[in-house]
Structure prediction request, 1000 residues.
Amino acid sequence: MARKLPAKDVAIIGLGWTGSIMAYELADAGLEVIAIERGPWRNTPTDFPPNFAPDELRYRIRHELFLRPEQTTFTFRNKMDQTALPIRTWGAFMPPNGVGGGGVHWNAETWRFLPSDFVLRTHLTQRYGAGFLPEDMTIQDWGVTYDEIEPYYDRFEYLCGTSGQAGNIKGKIIDGGNPFEGPRSRPYPTPPQDQPFSHTLFAKAARDLGYKPFPQPSGNLSRPYQNPLGVRLGPCTFCGFCEWFGCGNYSKASPQTTILPALLRKPTFSARDNSEVTRINLDGTGKRATGVTFVDAEGNEWEQPADLVILSAYTIFNVQLLLLSGIGKPYDPVANAGVIGRNFSHQTISSVDSFFEPGKFIFNPFIASGAIGMCIDEFNGDNFDHGPHGFVGGAYMGQVQTNGRPIETTPVPPGTPRWGAAWKKAVKENYLSALKPGTGVHGSMYSYRDVYMDLDPTYKDRFGRPLARITMDFHDNEIKQNAFLTDKFAEIFQAMGAKQVVKHYRKGPYDVTQYQTTHLCGGAIMGTDRNTSAINRYLQCWDVPNLFVTGASGFPQNAGYNPTGTLAALAFWAANAIRTHYLKNPGQLINA
Amino acid sequence: MRKRSTIAIALLALTASVGASRSAGLQDFAEIERGRYLANAADCASCHTVPGSNQPFAGGRPIETPFGNLVSPNITPDRDTGIGTWTDEEFDAAVRAGRQRGGARLYPAMPFPYYSRMSREDVKAIRAYLSTVPPVHNAVMSDALPFPFNLRSSMIVWDRLYFKPGEFHPDPSKSAEWNRGAYLVEGPAHCGACHTPKTLLGGDKKSDALRGYTLQGWVAPDITSGQGPLGNWSVDDIAEYLKTGHNKYAAAAGLMAEVVQLSTSNMTDEDVRAMAVYLKDIQGAASPGPGSVDQNVLTAGGAIFQDLCAACHRQDGQGIPNLFPRLSDAATVATPDPTTVLRVILQGTPTVATDREPTGPGMPAFGWQLDDEQVAAVATYVRNHFAHAPAVTAEQVHRMRATLAKTE
Prediction:
């Protein structure tokens, strides 16, 4: 039997990026806020100091910062007629855990989506006709436009101190930046990071081929920075231990380095770590959340009453908790009805390995940061005419090589034995002169009727609750997209002077054991129609207006970018709607 | 906002402490506010509130002294266990003359030699403020000193040697700002209580005022100007450090973090600047210099520095302003006594977070990773290469480890 705690104004589930943003904004509005986090508290100098954080075995191979599957996991299948099985080690994506969430382990690639990404179905239909889209593709408009959330992208970038080169300031195209980006109101807060040799060589080759390369917008800072909350970051040292690792020297934007120090000074904020929310509680009408129930590390069950509930967990767990709490109608792919679990998506990633003349090209791949890289955006979203190609979607692509860590950075030319003396010799020969961009082709994955989440009929978690079940496979559109983009990407490495370029196309079936990105999207999507979306344009649950759901679970489909900039902007946008409208008149913000 | 809550607390306390014998009227808002500010400047809470406790001034915090531990008394208006029944005269005698109620002498852990520089009105104001805090029933046994220090009569000699009572008198040849700073530094803020070297009996060595002392495992560095470790600090640098806990040179950690958090960060910009103006005007002695250093140790230390330290402090030791200290000008690095450098390398430390500098960056611990010789090498490198301070031996590191193990 849950013991009841004193009521709060706001209960926040998960203290990652969006949980921290919502907590800060709502505590700043004077509300009593409690954040309940499943994982441990994490501080820079004690949890990932520079003297033990750079440990590839511990953090990358053994997943130190991530959720332990023993605590909870999900089941997976490719097709609806298969039986899903529980996943016992992470592969295709990495469920974060602990204070800071994915903001601790990310690479800090801080993108904005294209204006057309937010009105995707309308845009593509207008340009190519409705018949151009695959019949079972369920892409939607977001219900919010780029122009509406631009000020909130700006808020997030200035919170983080993002290093980059603007390509479009108020409509004026700026040389050296991304000419395809939506208009931004001002430059990045700090200039772009310096780029190592391979990245500049990629940019030169891309320019020679007629593209407009630009430095990837980076939350690994180029300069010391103090953000509007007074919190300081230092400059990145190019240590090459960024993604999968916490940053030990305060140079990667994370909740710890940008917002938590200011949040912790708010007298109305408190937090519980090592406490897993098991249910969002509803009143008798089912239309109002009364708070949450959670279980602490001792196994004690607590009820935390709250007037407002913010669901800010990772994509899978947002959707699972909605399903387990009986909020919203579960999605049924057969009837194509219901909303929770709908339009689930991930990413379509591929890369190429390229081998250059040893001795002539010395790339020193270990000099890197998480969001280092020179990129091109000619083939992202709808920046190019898809008419002749028979697919939609795209990717940014770039020499985004974030490390030269010893366990995984062993590119060898095809034909090399897979172990033994010959393999070792080839690794040694090629280490400095081979390139292996991490997410070279960072492609979109659009949504489909048969890619979704629901509750598993068989497998249960430690509380006896059904695990989340993922049904996901690549569709022809993404396979075609990736083949086209990977070829384009490889051409640039050829132009750089590689003697051999090896393409690793993304092919089906979707493989849950192969890491792509942690960018799971959708399942509790935003939109304008309560029959096809779980939350409205302010991330407010249609059915339970005192529940807001943040994070990439709200994306109706994924774009060819990293999601953090967008999900953080949407959190600021939702927080603003709560502060300026909801608190004055608690209730449904949209009359639909 | 803050003022409003002060009034609310004051009203609450009114009902609780009616009948307390004191002359300050609880309606006297201006006096209470002045007292609150002075109690903050005097950092009463540092000793009289247990850290993290929600019972301000209820006492019970152990105070480490070279002669043994004392426990701070309850100074809330509680009538049984606090100072609720004290007269203003008794309170004034305790604060400015070091006399307990009934006349027994206080140990100078209570910095009455400094508080003596305050006026009677100042102390009355502090009393007025303390009368507004919630009374807490908390009986404290404050004496735990061994013989002969447990004999409070032994303080007669001490007082005669080291206690020169008397209010602060402004120096008419100096500016009003200088005089305000002098009053704060020498009076309520009692900087010398930590920063002035002590005699064997724990009295201030007046001739070396503010030239640095080591206590409770931390160095309170020389804070005079001239060729000492703060030589490069400007008035603005000192003021910024006092107000925010950070500047381009250093970050407050350990005991000073507490001072900044509880006291100086809550002072007005004008007051911290006045303190800086006064401190900047006190000329100290030149640093003793680095002495001789083994080149092999420097080479080894430099390599360790490059591996483990340079990511934050930068290869040139310049650090990042207000985030990572500049090793050439962080006073605790340059100081002859390496206590702080060693403990911080071995154990790491958080630094203070304040409203203006909320980051509170922390130094990680390296004691688990480096042996005594390696710590000595890197500390020697840092001190010698950047700050021209003397070498550190492995033996010193070993002793520091032992000390830290005891206090853990």
